[in-house]
Design a protein that fits this description.
The protein is built from eight helices and 25 strands. It is α+β, with helices and mostly antiparallel strands. The strands form five sheets. Strands 7, 8, 9, 11, 12, 13, 15 and 16 form an eight-stranded antiparallel beta sheet that branches. Strand 5 (146-152), helix 7 and strand 6 (182-187) form a beta-alpha-beta unit.
Length: 442
């Protein structure tokens, strides 16, 4: 491995999401993580203690650390995605606490779309339920590479090992059938703090890590230099000043991989080729740049490049197409119907498109396909075929979560309608990856 890829392969940050059924204790788990890892400010804790006392509770309700909306506190549920940032000496964390209700499935898609790990909670008394399978399926659809099953409320089943073992076995088999590459199971009590930050004194039969230990040590390294290199152009820089009379640069954020000066590249969708004459980063010329750096690329040839174009290595360019087949999660209240005219936003490119077909709608509890539904309503996940007015350089989502995803937008008012993932639905539907490439590209 090169020196640069070695530097890139170590990360000190983890993005993760929590999910689970209503009342499984997601917000309490998050609150316990923040509280016991000393990540709660004094005034925040005092506000939670005051709110808890006003509700007649003797001890602080740690769920209030994340349930910030008034409706959430009144109903005792999570409605919106709550993002929290905290750190330990070993790693920084970006946490998305997602809702458990079926009607908020789209919120989980939002929270898990950028996650490198998902924590799915299960009530030890209820075991794996429909919503558990739904959240595992959504995590698999979004290609979240690490899945943690947190069997919560073990204190209410007398910390019984057989209860935990049966739930872990059922869930692991289901998630593995979806192609999830790594599944870990941890017995916890978020309310009592067992195995969240500190090891439990009641479950000596469990010898694995606590939730925090797992979050701190789970490998999320990715050799970004080994990914398919992609550079969506965001802006064309032409200062045309006396100091820079002929400067023409293409600015943006590298979506994946690495680019080097002298490398042969293709500009898509035009297909024109050139070589990289220079790369500018933070006002300095560099020989190499990699994701997710924001840079300006200069090409050796004066060719037409504009916002929305994609620069890729000449020998590793994605296919260009106007027919997009994808799995989507419909997030708008208005339905998506066949024949509907939309805007498709892919990286920095937005094009007109029409929904040509909706072949099926996915039933997540048993993964069955409902053929030809005719439309998708809010929170539905299904397969669609879209025809675009202009060609797109689109990767399969299994190859790249960044350049394989897109949004469908209402051209009338700019409302986001649908989140899309190009290519096959689940990893289990595609060819199994080689042992050295078992993790997905971020």
């Amino acid at each position: 491995m090169s020196t640069i890829s070695t530097e890139l392969s170590t990360t000190t940050q983890l993005r993760f999401a929590t999910a689970g059924s209503v009342d499984d204790g997601k917000s309490t788990l998050v609150g316990r993580l923040l509280h016991d890892s000393k990540s709660v400010l004094t005034d925040q804790l005092e506000a939670v203690e005051h709110a808890s006392r006003s509700r007649g509770q003797q001890t602080p309700d740690l769920a209030l650390l994340t349930d910030g909306l008034r409706a959430e506190r009144e109903q005792g549920i999570t409605i919106d995605v709550a993002y929290r940032y905290f750190a330990t000496p070993r790693r920084r964390f970006i946490l998305a606490d997602t809702p458990g209700h079926v009607q908020y499935t789209r919120n989980m898609v939002t929270g898990a779309s950028t996650a490198e790990l998902a924590v799915v909670l299960v009530d030890a008394r209820n075991g794996v339920v429909e919503q558990t399978r739904r959240h595992a399926a959504v995590a698999a659809l979004l290609r979240v590479p690490h899945l943690v099953l947190a069997v919560n409320k073990m204190d209410l089943v007398d910390y019984a090992e057989p209860v935990f073992a049966a739930i872990a076995e059922e869930f692991t088999a289901y998630a593995a059938s979806l192609g999830v590459p790594e599944i870990s199971a941890i017995p916890i009590s978020a309310l009592a703090g067992d195995n969240v930050v500190e090891p439990s004194a009641h479950m000596d039969w469990y010898g694995g890590p606590t939730v925090l230990e797992h979050l701190e040590t789970v490998p999320v390294s990715h050799d970004l230099t080994g990914c398919h290199a992609r550079f969506p152009v965001q802006y064309v820089i032409r200062p045309q000043t006396a100091e820079h009379p002929d400067y023409r640069g293409y600015a943006g954020q590298i979506a994946a991989g690495a680019f080097r000066v002298g490398e042969a590249v293709t500009v898509l969708p035009s297909g024109r080729t050139s070589t990289i004459a220079g790369i500018d980063a933070l006002g300095e010329s560099v020989d190499i740049a990699w994701a997710p750096q924001s840079v300006t690329v200069r090409l050796a040839d004066d060719i037409d490049v504009s916002r929305g174009d994609l620069i890729a290595p000449a020998d590793d360019a994605p296919a260009v197409t106007q027919d997009v087949e994808a799995t989507v999660c419909h997030v708008a209240d208005q339905p998506l119907v066949v024949g509907q005219r939309v805007l498709l936003k892919h990286t920095t490119r937005t094009v007109k498109a029409i929904v040509k077909d909706i072949p099926s709608r996915l039933t997540l509890d048993d993964l069955s396909q409902h053929p030809a539904p005719g439309q998708l309503v809010a929170n539905d996940i299904g397969r669609i075929v879209v025809r675009t007015a202009e060609p797109l350089a689109l990767d399969a989502y299994a190859d790249s979560r960044r350049t394989g995803s897109f949004l469908l937008i209402d051209p009338a008012d700019g409302t986001t309608l649908t989140a899309g993932m190009a290519g096959a639905s689940f990893a289990a539907e595609t060819e199994a990856p080689a042992a050295d490439d078992a993790e997905w590209d971020f």
